[in-house]
Amino acid sequence: MKILVIGRGVAALGFLDKLVRSDLFAQDHIELTWVSAGEGYPSCSLNSTALVALQGIKQGLSPLGDLLNKSYFTARDFLEAERPNGVYKVERYHKSPVEKLNHRFGHLFNVQEHNLFKWPINDCVKESAYIIHPSDFLSWWQELITKSFNSNSKYVNDLITELGPQVATGVKGKYPFDLCIDASGSLGLKLGLKKSGTEALGHYLVFNNVFFDDKEINKSFVLTTGGQNFIYQHEYRSVVFGGTDEKDEVHCPKSSALNLALKETLEDFAFLKFRGEKKVVSGSRHRAPRRMPQVIKEGRVIHIMGLYKNGYTVGHEFGEQVLCDVQAYYDATFATR
Ligand SMILES: Cc1cc2nc3c(=O)[nH]c(=O)nc-3n(C[C@H](O)[C@H](O)[C@H](O)COP(=O)(O)OP(=O)(O)OC[C@H]3O[C@@H](n4cnc5c(N)ncnc54)[C@H](O)[C@@H]3O)c2cc1C
């Protein structure tokens, strides 16, 4: 059975990771071709604040909440078991009006004694989170996956320009398949590989070579306030700030809104004032109808759709789901041959 995977972001890697660990992959007649466009076609996964946290999301309130809750635990189990490069477990502090925090988390924590900032009692919520350095983590994951490749598996750097019912056409060649996993994100939408959803740009600021003005902070952390994340990655001496939605379609957006939000954050938390080399980063996300990430089957193509704001958790969950679909197809079509 010929399996074709398109893409190299967290959606593709989430599936490939599960595939190479599966009994199915060990079958002689499984042929895997993994195709992705090169550096000129950056993935959203590389341009992402890449934060993984439960953030008070509970089961039983909505289908999206159920998916995000389940996905968090699938991602957490993977990160804890594998301890990948570029991933750090940190404390995340939410500082918002008390009613808002109560509504989301159901309770407030007494963290006065134990938090980095010594906030007043009952004034914030603390949770565990994983902060991820996208390129280090993705390189580690790609290497892990390709180490399991056998003589029936290959990676090809190519841009798919047309996806037919049983063959994908790229700039460099044609790729026939029995089953294709389309994990092409928002670029795939632009190129017509998938038909539904919209592109949603997201922007954030990155500061490198960071030095805090007041005192040395020697621990990574996340502060979520005013709808923005302030992520300090001590191992990289970098601050990542933002993750907002903008309507503009240009690749270098106005960063004024983020600058203003950062200024307000630093007015409220003066001890976080810092110096660093700034750049603005933009990522292009795929947003599926109703903002609901989904796996859609169209003939022999399985589209992984709309990971939108949550690819670093949902990518893991959908990887398992798509592997089940591939296994079912194999059992129905090839197993008895
Ligand atoms: C500013 C911002 C902040 C974010 N913050 C978070 C966060 O804190 N936590 C979180 O979980 N998520 C976050 N996200 C969302 C997350 O980054 C995305 O959901 C995720 O990266 C999407 O992964 P993907 O694999 O679906 O798509 P992508 O990462 O875009 O991967 C698609 C891949 O397919 C390739 N490709 C596309 N078309 C073709 C083609 N025709 N031929 C060959 N190859 C092709 C591309 O080159 C790319 O490698 C954020 C996103 C942004 C923009």
Written description of the protein model:
The protein is α/β, with parallel strands linked by helices and 337 residues long. The protein has two domains: 1-86 and 133-197 and 288-337, FAD/NAD(P)-binding domain; 88-130 and 199-286, D-Amino Acid Oxidase, Chain A, domain 2, CATH 3.30.9. It contains seven helices and 17 strands. The strands form three sheets. The protein has an eight-stranded mixed beta sheet with strand order 3-5-4-12-13-14-11-15. A six-stranded mixed beta sheet has the order 6-2-1-10-17-16, covered by helices on one side. A hairpin with a 2-residue loop joins strand 12 and strand 13. Helix 2 packs across helix 7. The longest helix is centred in the C-terminal third of the chain and has 23 residues, at 311-333. The chain is elongated and about 70 Å long. Flavin-adenine dinucleotide is lined by residues 6-12, 35-37, 41, 43-45, 47-51, 159-160, 183-188, 191, 193, 202-204, 243, 283, 285, 307-313.
> How many beta strands in the DSSP annotation?
17
Query: Mean pLDDT, nearest integer?
Result: 91
Q: Helices and strands, in N-to-C order?
A: EHEEHEHEHEEEEEHEEEEHEEEH
CATH T-level topology of the largest domain = FAD/NAD(P)-binding domain
What CATH architecture label of the largest domain applies?
3-Layer(bba) Sandwich
The set of bound ligands, ions and cofactors reads:
flavin-adenine dinucleotide
| CATH top-level class of the largest domain | Alpha Beta
